Amino acid sequence: MKSFNVSWKTGMILLFLLLISSACEYDGPNSPWEQAKQAESVIPVITQVIPEDASGASVITINGKNFSANPEEVWVYVEKEQCKVIECSETSISIYRPKTVGDALTISVVIKNAATIAKYSPYKLAAVVNTFGYFADTDIIVTIAMDANENMYVTMNDGSIRKLDPTSQQPDEAYLADMSPLATDMKIGPDGGLYFVRKKATVYRIPPEGGSAENYAKFDKVKNKEAKAAFFDFDQNKNIFAGGTSTGLLLLRADLTQANWGIYNEYDITAVRVFNEHVYVAAEYLGSEANIPAKAIWKNEIISTSGEVNPVSELVLDLAKLSDSLDVVINAITFSADGDMYVGTNLASPIIRVKASSETEPLYFGLLSGRVDQFVWGAGEYLYTLTNSKQTKAEGGLIYKIYMAKTGAPDYGRP
């Protein structure tokens, strides 16, 4: 009987000790002191910023350690400007280039719950987007073109043409010329003349020394209807490729003979560019056939010096990849010498870079605004754009000079 009492008492003591042990466990949040101690071990560090000199880069990559893979826990600042984070991981953060410029900027990375802020300095960011040309707020720019010496020709809504000096950006008073204020596209031709179209069958030309526009040639009718050439480009054999609404791809040779290859007849062509022995066409499909992109960029190989093209069109970019809005349009196409394609649109970030890998990214996100209607490359590493054509400067109709850190593809119209 005594032995039983001892065992029972021993069991009760063990049970009591177990209950006390369980009661001492704490499952609540850490105390502020424990959180601070934990945070001290999470110290973000920047080890490298790529590129070292941003130059023409649209995206900046910050490498280091103790970052976060959750973009909601990452904040990046250049001086006081917060930058948009594209993607992030524990060791890398990609941001869009900010507006802030300077020679000794500080980049700061803030990570949620980290004990410190990671800093990197000095970092240089030069201005890459500037307005070009001196215009009054009431001036309305319609089209632009540029010659091999980087003189810019600007058509105003009264039909007058200003020739702007590339250095002073002031008009050359000795150059006097006039054309139709309804011009939709304009380029320097191989003979130094200024060529333009205006949604009609006629191609017009102004002599190199200036003067009044003359009728250069006229496209034949398309299915008994007048051709509507709204956009065009030259190839290396001085052929002109043109297009418009329900006109198809038109060809005008240097000897003024012409052809229509029977492609894009059911399209509204909004841009034409020749590059690397192909003619590129931005167009909206107006037909009823299924499985054809509503808006896209296509290309056709140029297979002869006389301008014959392969009638099989190759899809280059479906606009649905950039936006699901039916209101988005492509107004311009150009290429850099390294093969990147640049697309001018009415998107919030209006210029899209399309890499050879078909990857797309906005050019200088947040630095450009307004609908991009035309591209012209300068003689060096600058791309000029006309935004919001046919609007006053006060309404946003401007020419921008954009540093690209690369040169443009050949412009076969320039002599």
What does this molecule look like?
There is one protein chain. The protein is mostly beta strands and 415 residues long. The protein folds into two domains: 91 residues, Immunoglobulin-like; 275 residues, 6 Propeller (Neuraminidase), CATH 2.120.10.30. The strands form nine sheets. A four-stranded antiparallel beta sheet has the order 1-2-6-5, with no helix packed on it. Strands 4-3-7-8 form a four-stranded antiparallel beta sheet, with no helix packed on it. It has a four-stranded antiparallel beta sheet with strand order 9-33-32-31, with no helix packed on it.
Put the structure in a nutshell.
The protein is mainly β and 415 residues long. It has helices at 2-23, 32-40, and strands at residues 45-50, 59-65, 74-78, 81-83, 85-88, 92-96, 102-111, 118-125, 129-131, 141-146, 152-156, 161-164, 177-178, 185-188, 194-197, 202-206, 211-212, 214-218, 231-234, 240-243, 250-252, 258-260, 267-275, 278-285, 295-301, 314-318, 330-335, 341-345, 351-354, 360-362, 372-377, 382-387, 398-403.
